[in-house]
Amino acid sequence: MARPPKAAPAPLLPSSPAAALAAYGRVEPKLLELGPEDLVTVYVEVPRAVSSVLSALPHLREMREEIVRDLPNHPIEMLDELEDYALAAWYADLLYSTPASELDTKKLTEDASTLREGLLVAAEALAYRNLLDKQRVADIRKGRGHSDLAGDLVALAELFRGSWDKVRAKTAVEDEELERAADLGVRLLAALAAKPGKGSAAAPKITDASDRRARAISLVAKAYEECRRAVAYLRWHDGGDGELAPSLLQKPRGRRPNSEKAAAGASSAGADATKAPADDTLAAPASADGALPPAQAANDAEPAALA
Measured at the alpha carbon of residue 110, what is the angle toward residues 108 and 116, in degrees to the nearest 5? Predict the structure, then answer.
């Protein structure tokens, strides 16, 4: 039976930075246990990798009972903790990718407080007329501290966007304010986590942002691969893992890391002299079973786990 084409998951990313921070706190002990030999090369950007995992979770969870029954030696904790791993990777990437110039906690807090109050006043007016959920608005109003402030902005953006078609003509809030609220909330959370002792967010024990990111994406990629293997085995006669996104450890077709491109360019003269076939498939030999080469140092344009 021919394998069905792989489904393209809808883009899905964490909607709550606060939840991502909490997940990172639960996962960090596992990250601390990883050594250099445990790191893997991931060939997609971290947000895209996280989106693939979160999109696959509903399908994986539907199969949990079957996996436990038919594959008793499968590490089911990989599935049970996969969401935390994905959220932790997103959070680690957030800290890695936020420029230091945007981590001024004092300025971010001032801007966030002003924006939060304006959106809350507008939300309370709409809730009074039953156009927004009164309880959700009241819960946001209860927020205290810098960490809550960051989460409140994201929550307010989500609240308005969830009913935007209904309320946009009845409020002075503009779409640009909602975009700014979501962005500002995320940046404030990053600033709080990057500075020990600031706010209520606990600072990560892994202080190097690049190392933290490499460990986090390696953990989620390897766990997701284990889940994909289980699905492929159980659904082999039905097309294997066709309902899941491709492996995060598989090099995309038609693309080569910069290091390989540079090597190909440097050897072009020799290739011309020997009349070697000009075939991209010869640029990076692979083993018969399709195994990838060992992970190597990379820059931001190369595999994400070692950026």
Answer: 95
For residue 91, the model assigns a pLDDT of 85
The vertex-271 CA angle with 265 and 276, nearest 5°, equals 130
Report helix angle 175-194 to 82-97, nearest 10: 90
Report the alpha-carbon distance of residue 49 to residue 127 in Å, rounded.
37
The C-alpha angle with vertex 257 and arms to 224 and 52, in degrees rounded to 5, equals 25
Instruction: State both tokens at 187.
Output: 């940046």
Residue of 185, 195, 176, 161 whose CA lies nearest to 113: 185
Token pair for residue 160? 């308005």
- Token couple for 92: 């680690």
> 224 CB contacts (<8 Å, ≥6 apart)?
52, 53, 56, 82, 85, 247, 248
Positive or negative torsion for Cα 212, 218, 219, 221: positive
Which residue's entry shows tokens 């069905």? Answer: 4
For residue 24, count other CB atoms closer than 10 A to its CB.
Answer: 27
Q: pLDDT tens digits for 49-66?
A: 888 898 899 999 999 999
